[in-house]
Amino acid sequence: LFYSSYIKSAKYWSIKKFNFIKSSTFKSLKISLIVYPMSIKDIITVPDETLKKISDPIEKVGINEKKLINDIFETMYHSKGIGLAAVQVGILKRILVIDVSTKDEKKNPLSFINPIIKNVSNETSVYEEGCLSIPDTFIEIERPKVCEVEYIDINGKVKNLKCDGLLSTCIQHEINHLDGKLIIDHLSKLKRDLIVKKISKSKKNPNRIIV
Ligand code: NI
Question: How does the average pLDDT of the chain come out, rounded?
Answer without folding.
Answer: 86
